[in-house]
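Worked example 2:
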Amino acid sequence: MDTLKKEFNVDLQVYFNGVIIGPHCMILAENAENIQQRLHDEMVKKVKEPSLREAMEKYREKMVAIYKVWYELCKTMMSTKEQDDAAIEKFEDNIKELKRQIHNLIVVDPPLSGDKNPLQLPTKLKWFTLLSDVLVNTLKLWRCIGDVAEESTESFHSRRNKMLKRYCQVRGKRRNELIMKALQFESASWIWEGIKAMLKATKSKRAKVVRTQQPTAVEEAPQEEENEEQQEEEVLLDWELQMNECPSLRVQDDFEHEDEALRSAYMKMDTRIHICCGCRQRFIGERALKIHQNERHKIKSEETDAVDGTVR
């Protein structure tokens, strides 16, 4: 069983005394047929008595049917979305079907009858909450169960900690009121739907202004250096062209420095403005443009360190 749990990514929660909770219940229910079949095959290798084999097959079929209903219930119980009337009615029918199948497995038609039957009806409070009308009535009242699930309430801690930073200058009862209002505002789907509808309704209906100078597509960008410089001059703004022509922004020819290596590096420095014809971003230096084109647009150049697709 431990091997199957690892294979199907079903984890036991240590802090809950080794039980399966939340999404892992859904994983177990979703793969129940395969898990039960694998268990049955392993047990058949060790059990030779025909009556026990028949009981094992009967137990497998009934458990697969129970897990299928349980999987449908988990979908509703784990969901944090508002449930409509059809989903609530289906959930109520599945609760009744689950009770019927469990009663049939344990009482009406158990795999082993009489004193040999080891199965007993569940008596835990959580089972009473599930199989009684409590959960159904909660769903009918609030139209959602996932928001009060263990995973959702645990995730509330991190959200509240962020709210505490937002209202760090407020103390006492007033801070708690502000935090609850903020959480309710962020959690209310109808508020966000209303905001989206308002933004859509007030969106400008005017046609977009088409610029006379359109950027050249990346796929059609020529590779020759002369053509690239000509394209840059076509799409660069006037003040950018003026900056590129300004001598004071270039490294002077008579620049001197005691460190010859540093002087040589300065003399090779490109301080002109270059533009990417694909996304119109500006870069200082042709080398920076080449690296950007390789990383963003997959345009490789032998003049850069990024020939093989990596930056060294």
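The beta strands are 273-275, 282-284. Confidence is low (pLDDT under 50) at residues 217-224, 230-234, 304-312.
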